[in-house]
Automatic annotation (TrEMBL):
Keyword Cell division among UniProt keywords: no
Protein name per UniProt: EAL domain-containing protein
Single GO MF descriptor: catalytic activity
Residues of the full protein shown: 780 to 1068 of 1068
EAL domain segment(s): 24-281
Source taxonomy: Bacteria, Pseudomonadati, Pseudomonadota, Gammaproteobacteria, Oceanospirillales
Keywords tagged on the record: Membrane, Transmembrane, Transmembrane helix
Amino acid sequence: YQAKQRGIAVSLFHLDQAKVLERRVMIEKELHEGMETEQVYLEYQPKIDLLSGQIEGVEALARWNHPELGMVSPAEFVTIAEQSAQIHRLGRRVLDLACRQLMQWRGEGINLSMAVNLSAQELQNEQLPDYIASLLSRYQIGPRQLEIELTETAIMGNVDRSIALLERIRALGIRVAVDDFGTGYSSFSYLNQLPIASIKIDRTFVSQLGRTTSQRGDAETIIRAIVGLAHNLDLQVVAEGVETPLQQSYLQRLRCDQGQGYLFCRPTSAGEVTRLIREQGSLLAQEAG
Ligand code: C2E
Ligand code: MG
Ligand code: MG
Ligand code: MG
């Protein structure tokens, strides 16, 4: 009886595994077509100035609407792209779409900065700075309008090569941000050695701010330390994943420069960003205090 039960469990397990594998193979195989068509596109999430509530820039986030699978999250397809060497094509596609959108916004009289996320492997690609430079000239975009986001883990994977490549990107006039700060190596010691302009505090710290647990004090202390250090190094600080007015008011008190999160705006279409900018209203929550 036991053996039979185990047999069923084992075959269910295999069925599960087979489904997971099947989906993976499908994504890996069809991502190429997705990238060549409108299936893969960008959404834009505003970065808000925490004093004025105005939109100062946006982050481009890749989206894939698969004809059968529906929306596939970037956590899934970016990871598969990284493992199947398609990440370079995806990165080029995202950069191209982002720059094209910047050009369109400029035509509409809107001057925004746009941040693009890059993966670790892209940071090892010696051709990347030239590719970015070619986009800037093709779309007639000023380098200050483009920003690159990289996680600590991506940078520290091969720190000397990463710094060399980031120096070349910075030499173009493009700013670099450390994404998800505090989750990787989280060492303050290398921050002053990186050619970066800002850091983005990971949302795990931000989400603890509104909570009445003993952890709240820790998150507050950590954020205060990060902001203090960053400002001493002339770096801007962005808080990720701001979801409540209470978190907003903590971050304002802690002197964070910018915030990003569902409280202000979810990732959305370019048209919606245009509309929000034309309205010129503050996206800050009013009842915070
Ligand atoms: P990330 O760069 O740290 O982006 C922030 C993620 O948090 C986004 O998820 C965003 O939708 C989500 N988010 C924003 N505000 C909130 C909030 O208030 N609460 C919560 N819970 N989440 C919030 P998304 O779009 O699913 O992207 C996930 C990750 O996938 C990104 O993390 C980034 O690492 C990666 N990614 C997205 N697009 C690209 C891309 O074009 N290239 C590469 N290499 N990676 C990308
Ligand atoms: Mg990011
Ligand atoms: Mg992030
Ligand atoms: Mg993140």
